[in-house]
Amino acid sequence: MKKWLASFVIGAICLIAVAAFAQSNNAPQVGPAKGSLVVVGGGKIPASVSDRFIELAGGRNAKFIYIPTAGEDQQLNNQTGDESPRLFGLKNVTVLHTRDRKVANTEAFAAPIREASGVWFGGGRQWRLVDSYADTLTLKEIWKVLERGGVIGGSSAGASIQASYLVRGAREGNTIMMAKGYEVGFGFLRGIAVDQHINTRRREKDLAEVITAHPELLGIGIDESTAIVVKGDQFEVIGAGQVAITDGKPHDGKGFYFLTPGARFDLKKRGKL
Fold first, then answer.
1. What does each C-alpha distance from 50 to 109, 221, 260 come to in angstroms?
2. Given the DSSP bridges, would you call strands 93-95 and 64-67 parallel, antiparallel or unpaired?
3. CATH topology of domain 36-272
4. How many other C-beta atoms lie within 10 A of the C-beta of residue 217?
5. What is the four-CA torsion angle of 124, 128, 209, 235, rounded to 10 degrees?
6. Under 8 Å between Cβ of 119 and 65
7. pLDDT in tens, 229-259
8. Structural domain boundaries of the chain?
9. What is the Cα–Cα distance from 257 to 246, expressed in whole angstroms?
Protein backbone atom coordinates (compact mmCIF):
# COMPACT_ATOMS: atom_id res chain seq x y z
CA MET A 1 0.00 0.00 0.00
CA LYS A 2 2.80 2.40 0.93
CA LYS A 3 4.63 1.51 -2.26
CA TRP A 4 1.51 2.20 -4.34
CA LEU A 5 0.91 5.50 -2.54
CA ALA A 6 4.52 6.57 -3.11
CA SER A 7 4.22 5.75 -6.81
CA PHE A 8 0.94 7.68 -7.01
CA VAL A 9 2.47 10.76 -5.34
CA ILE A 10 5.53 10.66 -7.61
CA GLY A 11 3.28 10.32 -10.65
CA ALA A 12 1.12 13.22 -9.54
CA ILE A 13 4.19 15.42 -9.02
CA CYS A 14 5.44 14.55 -12.50
CA LEU A 15 2.07 15.44 -14.05
CA ILE A 16 2.04 18.79 -12.22
CA ALA A 17 5.58 19.50 -13.40
CA VAL A 18 4.68 18.64 -17.01
CA ALA A 19 1.57 20.83 -16.84
CA ALA A 20 3.57 23.72 -15.39
CA PHE A 21 6.19 23.37 -18.11
CA ALA A 22 3.53 23.28 -20.81
CA GLN A 23 1.86 26.37 -19.37
CA SER A 24 5.12 28.32 -19.20
CA ASN A 25 6.12 27.11 -22.65
CA ASN A 26 2.85 28.42 -24.07
CA ALA A 27 3.13 31.77 -22.31
CA PRO A 28 3.46 34.74 -24.67
CA GLN A 29 7.07 35.53 -25.55
CA VAL A 30 6.50 38.96 -27.07
CA GLY A 31 3.20 40.47 -25.97
CA PRO A 32 1.68 40.63 -22.48
CA ALA A 33 0.56 37.42 -20.79
CA LYS A 34 -2.69 39.14 -19.84
CA GLY A 35 -4.47 42.23 -21.04
CA SER A 36 -4.06 44.07 -24.34
CA LEU A 37 -2.10 46.82 -26.04
CA VAL A 38 -3.34 49.44 -28.50
CA VAL A 39 -0.34 50.95 -30.31
CA VAL A 40 -1.16 53.92 -32.57
CA GLY A 41 1.03 55.56 -35.20
CA GLY A 42 0.04 59.14 -34.35
CA GLY A 43 -2.17 61.64 -36.15
CA LYS A 44 -5.95 61.75 -35.92
CA ILE A 45 -7.21 58.76 -33.96
CA PRO A 46 -10.24 57.23 -35.71
CA ALA A 47 -13.26 55.95 -33.80
CA SER A 48 -12.40 52.38 -34.78
CA VAL A 49 -9.22 52.70 -32.70
CA SER A 50 -10.52 54.67 -29.71
CA ASP A 51 -13.62 52.47 -29.51
CA ARG A 52 -11.49 49.32 -29.41
CA PHE A 53 -9.35 50.79 -26.62
CA ILE A 54 -12.47 51.68 -24.61
CA GLU A 55 -14.01 48.25 -25.23
CA LEU A 56 -10.85 46.45 -24.04
CA ALA A 57 -10.90 48.53 -20.84
CA GLY A 58 -14.45 47.42 -20.07
CA GLY A 59 -16.53 50.17 -21.64
CA ARG A 60 -17.07 53.90 -21.18
CA ASN A 61 -17.90 53.52 -17.49
CA ALA A 62 -14.49 52.01 -16.71
CA LYS A 63 -11.78 54.08 -15.01
CA PHE A 64 -8.99 55.44 -17.19
CA ILE A 65 -5.59 57.03 -16.72
CA TYR A 66 -4.24 59.55 -19.22
CA ILE A 67 -0.50 60.31 -19.15
CA PRO A 68 0.36 63.36 -21.32
CA THR A 69 3.96 63.68 -20.06
CA ALA A 70 5.59 63.18 -23.49
CA GLY A 71 4.19 66.56 -24.56
CA GLU A 72 5.80 69.97 -24.12
CA ASP A 73 4.69 72.08 -21.14
CA GLN A 74 2.94 74.63 -23.34
CA GLN A 75 1.14 71.84 -25.19
CA LEU A 76 -0.06 70.33 -21.91
CA ASN A 77 -1.67 73.63 -20.94
CA ASN A 78 -3.59 73.96 -24.21
CA GLN A 79 -4.75 70.45 -25.04
CA THR A 80 -7.69 69.84 -27.33
CA GLY A 81 -8.89 67.00 -29.54
CA ASP A 82 -8.55 63.24 -29.08
CA GLU A 83 -5.92 63.40 -26.37
CA SER A 84 -7.35 66.22 -24.29
CA PRO A 85 -7.72 65.54 -20.55
CA ARG A 86 -11.17 64.14 -21.36
CA LEU A 87 -9.53 61.45 -23.53
CA PHE A 88 -12.00 60.43 -26.26
CA GLY A 89 -14.85 62.14 -24.39
CA LEU A 90 -14.61 59.74 -21.44
CA LYS A 91 -15.84 60.86 -18.02
CA ASN A 92 -13.84 58.70 -15.62
CA VAL A 93 -10.36 59.92 -16.56
CA THR A 94 -7.55 60.75 -14.14
CA VAL A 95 -4.70 62.75 -15.66
CA LEU A 96 -1.31 61.78 -14.26
CA HIS A 97 1.64 63.99 -15.10
CA THR A 98 4.95 64.85 -13.49
CA ARG A 99 8.45 65.79 -14.59
CA ASP A 100 9.79 64.61 -11.25
CA ARG A 101 10.85 60.97 -11.06
CA LYS A 102 10.68 61.08 -7.26
CA VAL A 103 7.01 62.07 -7.42
CA ALA A 104 6.29 59.22 -9.85
CA ASN A 105 7.81 56.86 -7.30
CA THR A 106 5.36 57.81 -4.54
CA GLU A 107 2.29 55.92 -3.37
CA ALA A 108 0.11 59.01 -3.61
CA PHE A 109 0.91 59.65 -7.28
CA ALA A 110 0.57 56.02 -8.39
CA ALA A 111 -2.55 55.23 -6.34
CA PRO A 112 -5.20 56.09 -9.01
CA ILE A 113 -3.72 53.50 -11.39
CA ARG A 114 -4.78 50.72 -9.03
CA GLU A 115 -8.44 51.38 -9.83
CA ALA A 116 -7.99 51.79 -13.58
CA SER A 117 -8.50 49.26 -16.36
CA GLY A 118 -7.19 51.49 -19.15
CA VAL A 119 -4.02 53.61 -19.42
CA TRP A 120 -3.23 55.93 -22.35
CA PHE A 121 0.15 57.51 -23.13
CA GLY A 122 -0.11 60.70 -25.17
CA GLY A 123 2.21 61.86 -27.93
CA GLY A 124 5.28 64.08 -27.84
CA ARG A 125 8.87 63.07 -27.13
CA GLN A 126 9.78 59.63 -25.83
CA TRP A 127 12.64 60.74 -23.58
CA ARG A 128 10.26 62.65 -21.33
CA LEU A 129 8.41 59.44 -20.49
CA VAL A 130 11.69 57.66 -19.75
CA ASP A 131 12.92 60.46 -17.49
CA SER A 132 9.68 60.60 -15.52
CA TYR A 133 8.54 56.99 -15.20
CA ALA A 134 11.21 54.37 -15.95
CA ASP A 135 11.87 52.12 -12.94
CA THR A 136 9.26 53.85 -10.76
CA LEU A 137 6.26 52.70 -8.76
CA THR A 138 4.05 54.33 -11.39
CA LEU A 139 5.37 52.02 -14.10
CA LYS A 140 4.99 48.99 -11.82
CA GLU A 141 1.34 49.87 -11.27
CA ILE A 142 0.81 50.30 -15.02
CA TRP A 143 2.14 46.77 -15.52
CA LYS A 144 -0.46 45.59 -13.02
CA VAL A 145 -3.22 47.02 -15.22
CA LEU A 146 -2.24 44.39 -17.78
CA GLU A 147 -2.07 41.71 -15.11
CA ARG A 148 -5.69 42.54 -14.22
CA GLY A 149 -6.69 42.07 -17.84
CA GLY A 150 -6.83 45.77 -18.72
CA VAL A 151 -5.43 47.68 -21.66
CA ILE A 152 -2.51 50.03 -22.28
CA GLY A 153 -2.71 52.33 -25.28
CA GLY A 154 -0.73 55.19 -26.72
CA SER A 155 -0.05 57.21 -29.83
CA SER A 156 3.17 58.49 -31.42
CA ALA A 157 5.68 58.67 -28.53
CA GLY A 158 3.07 56.77 -26.54
CA ALA A 159 3.36 53.99 -29.11
CA SER A 160 7.16 53.72 -29.27
CA ILE A 161 7.49 53.69 -25.47
CA GLN A 162 5.52 50.43 -25.29
CA ALA A 163 8.30 48.46 -26.98
CA SER A 164 11.37 47.02 -25.28
CA TYR A 165 13.72 48.88 -27.64
CA LEU A 166 13.04 52.63 -27.80
CA VAL A 167 13.56 54.42 -31.11
CA ARG A 168 13.87 58.20 -31.57
CA GLY A 169 14.55 58.69 -27.86
CA ALA A 170 17.30 61.29 -28.29
CA ARG A 171 16.87 64.61 -26.52
CA GLU A 172 18.62 66.26 -29.48
CA GLY A 173 15.86 65.45 -31.95
CA ASN A 174 13.47 62.84 -33.30
CA THR A 175 15.52 62.04 -36.40
CA ILE A 176 18.05 60.05 -34.34
CA MET A 177 16.93 56.42 -34.30
CA MET A 178 19.28 55.09 -31.60
CA ALA A 179 20.26 57.28 -28.66
CA LYS A 180 22.58 56.14 -25.91
CA GLY A 181 20.80 56.30 -22.56
CA TYR A 182 17.39 56.32 -24.24
CA GLU A 183 17.22 52.93 -25.95
CA VAL A 184 15.08 51.09 -23.38
CA GLY A 185 11.31 51.39 -23.55
CA PHE A 186 8.74 50.14 -21.07
CA GLY A 187 8.83 46.63 -22.57
CA PHE A 188 5.16 45.71 -22.89
CA LEU A 189 6.29 44.33 -26.28
CA ARG A 190 9.47 42.28 -25.85
CA GLY A 191 12.07 42.08 -28.62
CA ILE A 192 10.30 44.83 -30.58
CA ALA A 193 11.05 48.35 -31.82
CA VAL A 194 8.03 50.51 -32.74
CA ASP A 195 8.18 53.55 -35.02
CA GLN A 196 5.30 55.90 -35.90
CA HIS A 197 4.14 58.56 -38.40
CA ILE A 198 5.45 56.20 -41.10
CA ASN A 199 3.39 57.49 -44.02
CA THR A 200 3.36 61.24 -43.38
CA ARG A 201 7.09 61.46 -42.57
CA ARG A 202 8.31 58.84 -45.05
CA ARG A 203 9.82 56.66 -42.33
CA GLU A 204 9.11 53.21 -43.76
CA LYS A 205 12.84 52.51 -44.28
CA ASP A 206 14.11 53.98 -41.01
CA LEU A 207 13.80 50.88 -38.83
CA ALA A 208 16.31 49.05 -41.04
CA GLU A 209 19.12 50.91 -39.23
CA VAL A 210 17.91 49.59 -35.88
CA ILE A 211 17.38 46.02 -37.04
CA THR A 212 20.81 45.94 -38.69
CA ALA A 213 22.38 46.97 -35.39
CA HIS A 214 20.10 44.68 -33.36
CA PRO A 215 19.09 41.74 -35.60
CA GLU A 216 17.31 40.01 -32.72
CA LEU A 217 14.62 42.71 -32.81
CA LEU A 218 11.52 42.97 -34.99
CA GLY A 219 10.67 46.41 -36.32
CA ILE A 220 7.05 47.56 -36.48
CA GLY A 221 6.34 50.89 -38.20
CA ILE A 222 2.80 52.26 -37.97
CA ASP A 223 1.03 54.79 -40.20
CA GLU A 224 -0.89 57.69 -38.72
CA SER A 225 -4.55 56.95 -37.83
CA THR A 226 -3.60 53.28 -37.65
CA ALA A 227 -3.02 50.88 -34.77
CA ILE A 228 -2.02 47.38 -33.87
CA VAL A 229 -4.09 45.68 -31.18
CA VAL A 230 -1.90 43.18 -29.34
CA LYS A 231 -3.11 40.19 -27.37
CA GLY A 232 -0.45 37.72 -26.32
CA ASP A 233 1.79 36.98 -29.29
CA GLN A 234 -0.62 38.18 -31.97
CA PHE A 235 -1.79 41.52 -33.25
CA GLU A 236 -4.45 42.83 -35.60
CA VAL A 237 -4.13 45.95 -37.77
CA ILE A 238 -7.01 48.42 -37.44
CA GLY A 239 -7.61 51.98 -38.61
CA ALA A 240 -6.98 53.82 -41.85
CA GLY A 241 -3.42 52.98 -42.91
CA GLN A 242 -0.74 50.31 -43.02
CA VAL A 243 1.89 48.73 -40.80
CA ALA A 244 5.44 48.17 -42.06
CA ILE A 245 7.27 45.06 -40.83
CA THR A 246 11.09 45.17 -40.82
CA ASP A 247 12.58 41.76 -40.01
CA GLY A 248 16.07 41.97 -41.51
CA LYS A 249 15.05 40.06 -44.63
CA PRO A 250 14.56 41.30 -48.19
CA HIS A 251 11.01 41.60 -49.46
CA ASP A 252 10.74 42.24 -53.20
CA GLY A 253 13.89 44.30 -53.09
CA LYS A 254 12.89 46.23 -49.98
CA GLY A 255 13.78 45.77 -46.32
CA PHE A 256 10.16 45.81 -45.20
CA TYR A 257 6.65 44.79 -46.20
CA PHE A 258 3.22 46.18 -45.42
CA LEU A 259 0.22 44.82 -43.55
CA THR A 260 -3.19 46.33 -44.32
CA PRO A 261 -6.19 46.82 -42.00
CA GLY A 262 -7.68 43.52 -40.93
CA ALA A 263 -4.37 41.67 -41.24
CA ARG A 264 -3.29 39.50 -38.32
CA PHE A 265 0.31 38.81 -37.37
CA ASP A 266 2.09 36.22 -35.20
CA LEU A 267 4.76 38.02 -33.19
CA LYS A 268 6.44 34.82 -32.03
CA LYS A 269 6.70 33.25 -35.49
CA ARG A 270 7.15 36.67 -37.11
CA GLY A 271 4.72 36.04 -39.92
CA LYS A 272 1.21 36.78 -41.15
CA LEU A 273 -1.64 34.60 -39.97
1. 26, 19, 18
2. parallel
3. Rossmann fold (3.40.50)
4. 21
5. -70
6. yes
7. 999 999 999 999 999 999 999 999 999 999 9
8. 36-272
9. 7
